[in-house]
Amino acid sequence: QSLMSHPLCHPQLEGLCSFLQLSTCPEPFLMRFCSWLLALSPELSYSSAAVLAEQLFLRRVLSLTQPPSRHLMAALTSFCSKYSHPFCRVLLPAVLQEPGEGAEQTKLICELVEECLEPHSVQLVLSQVLEVPLSEKLLPVLQAVLGRQDVLPPELLDLLVLTLCQQAPAFATSLGFAQLVTAVLTVCQSQVS
Predict the structure, then answer these.
(1) pLDDT tens string 20-69
(2) What is the Cβ-side half-sphere exposure of residue 7, based on CA atoms within 13 angstroms?
(3) Measured at the alpha carbon of residue 49, what is the angle toward residues 132 and 42, in degrees to the nearest 5?
(4) CATH (domain of 25)
(5) Number of domains the chain contains
(6) Residues whose CB is less than 8 angstroms from the CB of residue 52 and which lie 6 or more positions away in sequence, other chains included
(7) d(CA 54, CA 91)
(8) Within 13 A of 158's CA, how many CA atoms are on the CB side?
(9) What is the value of pTM for the model shown?
(10) How far apart are CA 81 and CA 97, in angstroms?
(11) Domain housing 110
(12) What phi and psi, each to the nearest 5 degrees, are found at residue 134?
């Protein structure tokens, strides 16, 4: 505990994670380790939480080909409940840039958005999704984000509407895109003229 609560530089923390083999440890141990992390006082710094998010979860999430086990899901949700911002900064870009369908990763991101990310982290998810080319696999993520937002910051709403307008021809036959546009008009009706 004294090691983790004491400020560590990135190489030290990465070395500790490597020594403990955290990226490949059994998932029940991962869940216990995350419970221990959440109990630390003082809390982890942003940079330490980001290193741990990468070491604990990145490889596991990117390699998902079926729904995550209950142990992995418990570890993810517990970590996200306290360190959602660094988690999103580390994992989302990797998931968004992953080629292919990434169906399990998309479902996982949607579940985390719907269940445990803090509101400011949900807005971070939206801004990160809007930084990459829109694809069919990202439409459910945007739907999940809208389900958590009553009012979007004006700059994010403007960017979302602009993106949807620009991408509309490419999604002319997409039911998911039509549902997303309907959701934007419904959720953000007080902001959309």
Answers:
(1) 677 778 888 888 888 888 888 788 888 888 888 998 999 999 999 999 99
(2) 3
(3) 145
(4) 1.25.40.480
(5) 1
(6) 13, 17, 22, 37, 44, 79, 83
(7) 7
(8) 3
(9) 0.82
(10) 24
(11) 12-150
(12) -70, 135
